[in-house]
Amino acid sequence: MQTKVENNKAWFLVLPVFIIVAFSAIIPLMTVVNYSVQDIFDQNTSYFVGAEWFKQVMLDSRLHDALIRQFLFSFTILLIEIPLGIGVALMMPTKGKSASLCLILVAIPLLIPWNVVGTIWQIFGREDIGLFGAFMGAIGVDYNYASDPVDAWSTVVLMDVWHWTPLVALLCYSGLRAIPEVYYQAARIDQASRWAVFRYIQLPKLTNVLIIGVLLRFMDSFMIYTEPFVLTGGGPGSSTTFLSQALVQQAIGQFDLGPAAAFSLVYFLIILLVCWVFYTTIMNMQKDK
User: Fold this and answer.
1) Is residue 123 part of a domain?
2) Range of the structural domain that residue 159 is part of
3) Which of 46, 103, 124, 259 is deepest in the core (most CB within 10 A)?
4) How far is CA 124 from CA 117, 131, 136, 141, in A?
5) How many domains, the chain?
6) Tens digit of pLDDT at every position of the chain (289 positions)
7) What is the rounded CA–CA span in Å between residue 218 and residue 271?
8) What is the CATH number of the domain that holds 85?
């Protein structure tokens, strides 16, 4: 009996890519780590301060408030976009020209640049020239995202749902199309209801796709910056100031590079930790089944 010998020479073809990616990622990261333990006065003057900036970040109440707003926003949009994306995918046609047309229409919001999305909703929400603002005024709702924190928060959430639900829908649509037809044939033979088909066939087969969707949407929502910055500028007050905006204000607005570097590292570790918790929890739930 011959022993199969694995040929791993193909790895040499992708090795340059790994080196370039590692090089471009490690150098900025090491720069941030260096800044996080330095008190920087100018380009040539800095003093080692150890963990002082990390202590300052952990005790800063403004950053605590931004972190709470960030978690609230991320979990809100996940609770909306994941079920909504699944529902849209289930309603999309699977054959013919209508399927292609539907895919194109659903994908349009994903093609719009982030700063343009903020500008669109900035105009869309104005009561004098925007359709949404005019509609809210016509039905008697006192809506003003520029001065009311609740309206500003709701508009940012609605904007993100409009922009990113298509991503979840397209991921779920591809997962649904990958389910073999024999499962549906067996369900028809057993006269299974539409809910039973979804509960016992489609949803379990979508688990891996939903893991990707949840992780992608959480990471992206946790790093949101451009859209709310263009729409509300973080206001009114600080009601829509998320972690990324607080970081930019500290690094560029106040030029506190040391505390900003420490904050960015804490920010990075929070994202890694929450994503790991998400992934571990979902995989353990899958194993229990």
Assistant:
1) yes
2) 61-288
3) 259
4) 10, 6, 11, 16
5) 1
6) 556 666 667 777 778 887 887 777 787 788 888 888 887 776 677 777 778 888 888 888 878 888 889 889 999 999 999 999 999 999 988 887 888 888 889 999 999 988 899 999 998 888 888 888 888 888 888 888 888 888 999 999 999 999 999 999 999 999 999 888 898 888 888 888 889 989 888 888 888 888 888 888 988 888 888 888 888 888 888 888 888 888 888 777 777 788 888 888 888 888 888 888 877 877 776 666 5
7) 9
8) 1.10.3720.10
DSSP letter assigned to residue 242: -
Write down how long the chain is. 289
- Is there a domain that residue 53 lies in? no
In a domain, 107, yes or no: yes
Token pair in block for residue 90:
């289930």
Identity of residue 33: V
Token pair listed for 222: 């946790």
Which residue from 236, 207, 218, 271 is spatially nearest to 77, judged by alpha carbons? 218
Instruction: Report yes or no on 37 lying in a domain.
Output: no
Three-class SS of residue 38? Answer: strand
Q: What is the C-alpha to C-alpha distance for residues 263 and 126, in angstroms, rounded to an integer?
A: 35
Can you list the alpha helix ranges (DSSP code H) found in 92-148?
A: 96-111, 114-124, 131-138
The span from the CA of 277 to the CA of 71, in Å, is 14
| Among 126, 149, 136, 146, residue whose Cα is nearest residue 72 | 149
Question: Which structure tokens are listed for 235?
Answer: 């206001």
DSSP string over 20-31? HHHHHHHHHHHH
Q: Estimate the share of the chain in helix, then strand, then coil, as percent rounded to the nearest 5.
A: 75, 5, 25
CA angle 122, 127, 132 (to 5 degrees): 70
